[in-house]
Design brief:
Helix content: 55-70%
Shape: extended
Distance between the termini: 81 Å
Number of domains: 3
Number of helices: 28
Largest sheet: 4 strands, mixed
Strand content: under 5%
Length: 647
């Protein structure tokens, strides 16, 4: 039964222990699977996996989002199985290369050859050969652990390996149900429990502990039932084929299906008489339905039928989809070497809190379970049914959650004025000599509100754009004058970036870079033979950096992101461009792209500076120019370095 019924049944059993002590209550495996896929979905939320599923066209965008929510059960399982296989195909060459460098590649090569021969469709594997192969795979897992240990500082690698671990738990639990293996069922459930606790599935945390405890004691409390479970009687087998058993609660859902389709309970619950007739006759009608199907062999087993996943068309489609996912996982470098935890499709950098919560989620969950058992079951310091505090672990989704802050400045100002005026009125009524006419000429605040806020902080100065508007009031010329002589155009790079925004509608930074280069090149003409692009530099803890921070007040929270490749997705442009580190990364990327892709022309010289990681670097498409060093400058503002280019 599902968790909602399980906890009610256990409380009833505890209340009537003498009468119900021989009853064994089992937590439903199907609903446990569904809940665990929601845990995986929460772990993956906004990690880029849904973008990869949609971009590969394996699933649609809406389906990909629903998969992360644990909906569409068959597609959920297929998505995680395909992703798991694709990730292994990307990881395996890296593992083999490392093993070769460390003299451990013999076992990997031998295993690959054995797998290729043993799983050949033309041959059959006996039990002994299968056991030997399992032993060989077990030796390889030791190599995988050593390789993982060498990559512990690569946060993005650890994140995706942990996802693969979660899928392993899900597949082991599914295998336990399909084969009716009781020990594997319990061990897999025990592995799930810390994850339920870490991601705030408090009911499964609370009652999962009770379920595991009851099942561990089963050999002593109900040995016959335990023997039956070990024989596979804890699951339901609807057909005679192998690897097709299902959990009891899922089998019950199959029975309930006939009551939820056309002609069932749906649509008649508002009419009491119709509902009562349906409830009284449901069992008989269901039996008649099954007997009728059996009479006409409807839904009967086909001799020699195999599992649907083993059909040729399905296997071919799965292989094609896996190859699509492999291509994208490799393009986005999912196992990259970096200390930062990043969204693979956009390069968004997670904060240290998010990185800690995601990479330490299992340890956090184990701590929660241990404390629960100690405090509520062993020592009984806390009542069993008292609410469990949610951890609310931060995930990638936290990056995109904008906190709503209420602007209380006006409310504070009104309260301050009201309080001061009240004191003035009290002073007048008490007979004190107060010159009201003079008093009302002043502000009712501790500081002048024209230059400071109520908390005593100086107001931010207005933007330079206000001064620009004043200077342009009497200017009617919209275009710069046309020169008869050869001239040049100097572009403030970041000002151009801000003015362009993401108006081209580019999806990747490579596309955006091409649009920016086209914009710069559009300034060349018969008379304009040189274009200079000058970017700001972004120095931490500088005066200008402080001014930029003040300028950002009130704007949306930015997302830290390193621009590393042309295929990297832009995602939310507005939240990208407000972060200074992102601007510096984008400037370096744009200038690098222009230096590598700009096609030199004898009468079209491009000069760029300021945005490179090398502070003094200046580049020109005219390789014969010798005076580039005169343009080198470590000034932070592009405004001042433009003077050098103009000279």
């Amino acid at each position: 039964m599902d968790e909602g019924l399980y906890n009610k049944a256990k409380m009833l059993q505890w209340a009537k222990m003498e009468e119900l002590k021989s009853v064994v209550i089992v937590l439903g495996g199907f609903h446990t699977q569904m809940t665990f896929t929601k845990v995986i979905g929460k772990y993956l939320d906004s990690s880029g996996i849904s973008d990869i599923w949609a971009e590969s066209e394996v699933f649609g965008e809406t389906t990909a989002e629903n998969i992360l929510k644990g909906k569409l059960w068959n597609r959920v399982m297929r998505a995680h199985k395909l992703s798991y296989e694709a990730l292994w195909r990307v990881l395996w060459p890296l593992l083999v290369l490392w093993a070769k460098d460390n003299g451990k590649d013999d076992k990997l090569v031998d295993l690959s050859m054995q797998l290729a021969s043993k799983f050949d469709q033309s041959s059959e594997m006996d039990t002994a050969a299968y056991s030997n192969l399992i032993d060989e795979v077990g030796q390889v897992t030791d190599i995988v652990r050593e390789f993982d240990a060498t990559r512990q500082d690569d946060s993005t690698y650890c994140y995706w390996r942990q996802y693969m671990h979660l899928v392993c738990i899900l597949l082991r639990f599914t295998r336990a149900i399909r084969e009716g293996t009781w020990e594997l069922y319990l061990s897999s459930f025990a592995e799930m429990l810390p994850w339920f606790a870490a991601f705030d599935h408090t009911n499964y945390t609370r009652w999962g502990v009770i379920f595991l405890t009851d099942m561990k004691l089963l050999p002593r409390t109900a040995p016959e039932v335990c023997q039956g479970f070990q024989s596979g009687d804890f699951v339901t087998k609807e057909t005679k084929h192998a690897f097709n058993q299902i959990a009891d609660d899922q089998a019950l859902e199959h029975v309930n299906k006939s009551g939820k389709v056309a002609g069932g309970l749906v649509g008649i619950t508002r009419t009491e008489s119709a509902r009562d007739r349906w409830c009284l006759t449901y069992n008989e009608r269901a039996k008649l339905s099954e007997d009728t199907k059996a009479m006409f062999d409807v839904g009967a087993e086909t001799k020699g039928a195999s599992h649907k996943d083993l059909g040729k068309a399905r296997m071919q489609r799965d292989e094609e989809d896996v190859l699509k996912l492999v291509s994208l996982f490799r393009r986005y470098d999912v196992f990259r070497e970096t200390g930062n935890l990043v969204v693979v499709t956009t390069g968004d950098v997670a904060s240290e809190e998010i990185k800690h919560d995601l990479l330490k989620a299992e340890e956090i969950g184990k701590t929660i379970v241990k404390e629960f058992v100690q405090a509520r079951i062993i020592k009984k310091e806390i009542k069993f049914h008292d609410s469990l505090k949610q951890k609310k672990l931060k995930t990638f989704e936290t990056l995109y959650s904008v906190p709503v802050s209420l602007d209380k400045s006006k409310t504070v100002a009104v309260k301050a004025d009201r309080d001061l005026l009240r004191r003035v009125v009290v002073a007048l009524e008490s007979g004190r000599d107060v010159d009201v006419d003079t008093l009302l000429q002043k502000e009712f605040s501790p500081v002048p509100l024209s230059i400071a806020t109520l908390d005593g902080c100086l107001r931010h100065s207005s933007g330079k754009s206000d001064l620009g508007n004043i200077l342009q009031q009497n200017v009617h010329q919209t275009q710069p004058p046309v020169s008869q002589y050869e001239t040049c155009t100097i572009i403030d790079g970041m000002a151009a970036v801000q003015s362009l925004g993401n108006s081209p509608g580019s999806k990747t930074f490579g596309q955006w870079s091409d649009s920016f280069t086209a914009y710069v090149s559009s300034h060349f003409s018969d008379n304009c033979t040189r274009v200079d692009v000058v970017f700001d530099r972004y120095v931490q803890n500088s005066i200008k950096g402080g001014a930029r921070e003040k300028r950002k007040d009130g704007k949306s929270k930015g997302i830290r992101r390193d621009v590393e490749s042309r295929e990297q997705r832009i995602a939310n442009w507005d939240r990208f461009i407000v972060v200074e580190e992102n601007k510096a990364s984008l400037a370096h990327f744009l200038l690098t792209e222009m230096t590598q892709r700009y096609e030199a022309h004898p009468r079209r010289e491009l000069v760029v500076s300021g945005g490179f990681n090398e502070i003094l670097k200046v580049w020109s498409s005219n390789t014969s120019r010798e005076d580039l060093q005169e343009l080198s400058s470590d000034h932070e503002e592009a405004d001042t370095r433009i003077v050098l280019h103009a000279n």
